[in-house]
Amino acid sequence: MILIGAVAGVVIGFVIAKVMERGKASKTIGNARKEAEAIIKDATQQGESIKKDKIFQAKEKFLELKAEHEKVIINKDKKIAEAEKRTRDKESQVSSELAKSKKLNEELDAKIQEVTHRQEFYEKKQAELEKLHKSQVQQLEVISGLSAEEAKSQLLESLKETARTDAMAFMQATLEEAKLTAQQEAKKIVINTIQRVGTEEAVENCVSVFNLESDDVKGRIIGREGRNIRALESATGVEIIVDDTPEAIILSCFDSVRREVARLSLHKLVTDGRIHPARIEEIVRKTEKQIDQEILEVGKRTVIDLGIHGLHPELIKAIGRMKYRSSYGQNLLQHSREVAKLCGIMAAELGLNPKLAKRAGLLHDIGKVPNTEADVETPHAILGMQWAEKYGEKPDVANAIGAHHDEVEMKSLIAPIVQVCDAISGARPGARRQVLDSYIQRLKDLEEIAFGFGGVQKAYAIQAGRELRVIVESEKVSDEKAQQLSFEISQKIQTDMTYPGQVKVTVIRETRSVHVAK
Question: Fewer Cβ neighbours under 10 Å: the N or C end of the chain?
Fold first, then answer.
């Protein structure tokens, strides 16, 4: 019974709990419905307010667009009004211009009529003047005994002569004025440049003398039936002259490199004592290699001494070969070194690039050491320019090399500097020597040029061809003509002859009155 009562109590408690939970749930559902209705009501109110706001904003936007549209319409109306006003103004302006144009046309017609009348009047006057001129010319021809063409030609000749004389006088005065201002400064630059360069003089011949300790060695050099000397001449290309000169043998060849190879080979053979054809060929080959190496070393030392960088190896070899070449007795390498130094100093004095000028001065005569027989036919200035272009030298340097004998046109200021320095180096006293025949021929050519002009009585080339004195006939040549003659002779010499330095032309005109007292 007790157990049944306990179970019943538990069941009753469970039922009561469930009933209470259902009451709470009903109450919660009621509260939720109320909250939902409140939220829906608030949302409805907010939607209505948003709707009203959007409608109000749309109305405001509409009013703004309408106002802007009205402004655009007003502006267009204003522009149309302005355009109509401009059109009316232009119409009135065109009307006034048309009126003026009509008036001008009327005035122009009047002027044309007036000009026509005047032209007819002037044509009549011109015809009358021509008749009068012809009659006067006829009277003058009768009086003078000359035709109009003859008188005109005489007048033109006299005017030409007067103009030529005046021009020569003006040119002479201008030259003198330029000399007064420029000659001193030019002399100063040249003298300072020459003074700052000191180069030894070297005279080369076509022969070299090989000294011997005794004449007994001559027989060993000649060999049995001359086989040794023939082998030596064949290997070196040098003529070996064994004569009665005591303790000396003469080596003769135009190529100084070959002479040097022969001299060194002979020295080695005589020192060694073994002289036979096979040994000669071996020594000559070794000596040629030694000379080639020496040529390269000389070229390198030269460019280092002058401070020149970046030269092509072939150009360095050409510079080294110049040691064994000479021009009019002047060593070519020493001449080129001297020209390079002169060019560098003179370019610095004139505000130009001294390194470029020095480079062009050193290379200006590389065409005198050709590599092949075909190169011999090309003028050395052109050949040197071609080599410089081939081996990457700058255009100014190549042009200076090619133009130093006026064989191509000068295109830079370095070119005349190289030409001048080449002339200075070749023209200074003791620098060069000339063959007697060519020297005498040059003097004769100078005198012949002077005798080619009219009125020349005598001509003398003096001071080793540095001055030409011309004596003219005073009856045929006036003082003004003498000035003109000196200029023309100098120009003729300059264009027809090649010479180092300058040639001064002096024209002498004198009158003498001689009486004998008895």
Answer: C
Residue 459 φ/ψ region, left for φ over 0, alpha for ψ in the -120 to 50 degree band, beta for the rest: beta
Q: Which of 280, 271, 268, 269 is nearest to 228 (CA)?
A: 280
Q: Count H helices and E strands in the chain, helices first.
A: 15, 8
Q: Which of 13-17, 247-251, 352-356 has the highest mean pLDDT?
A: 352-356
pLDDT band for position 399 (50/70/90)? very high
Rounded Cα–Cα distance for residues 31 and 35 (Å): 6
Q: For the segment 173-213, what is each residue's pLDDT rounded down to a tens digit?
A: 777 776 666 666 666 666 666 555 544 444 445 566 777 77
Q: How high is the mean pLDDT of the chain?
A: 80
The residues, ordered by sequence, that sit 6+ positions from 332 with a Cβ below 8 Å of its Cβ are 322, 323, 325, 326, 365, 368, 369
Q: How many angstroms from the chain centroid is the CA of residue 91? A: 65
- List all residues 6 or more positions away from 454 whose beta carbon is below 8 Å from its beta carbon: 476
Q: Taking every pair of C-alpha atoms in the chain, what is the biggest distance, in angstroms?
A: 214
**Position 381 confidence tier, pLDDT thresholds 50, 70, 90:** confident
Give the pLDDT of residue 104. 85
User: What is the model's pLDDT at position 204?
Assistant: 47
- Give the integer Cα–Cα distance in Å for 255 and 325: 8
Specify the amino acid at residue 227: R
d(CA 88, CA 103): 23
Sequence length of the chain is: 518
The sheet carrying 248-252 orders its strands as: 207-211, 248-252, 239-241
Token reading at 35: 């909250």
Closest CA to 165 of 503, 488, 489, 492: 488
Parallel, antiparallel or unpaired: strands 239-241 and 207-211: unpaired
Apex 323 CA angle, 319 and 329, nearest 5? 125
The residue type of 387 is W
DSSP single-letter state for residue 150: H
Count CB-CB contacts under 10 A for residue 249: 23
At 104-125, the pLDDT tens digits run: 888 888 888 888 888 888 888 8
What DSSP string runs through 238-260?
-EEE--S-TTEEEEE-S-HHHHH
pLDDT digit string (tens) for 281-294?
A: 888 888 888 888 88
Strand order in the sheet with 504-508: 456-462, 467-472, 504-508
| Residues forming a β-bridge with 331 | 326
Rg (CA), the chain: 56
To 5 degrees, how large is the angle CA 477–CA 483–CA 487? 115
Amino acid sitting at position 396: D
Confidence at residue 427, expressed as pLDDT on a 0 to 100 scale: 62
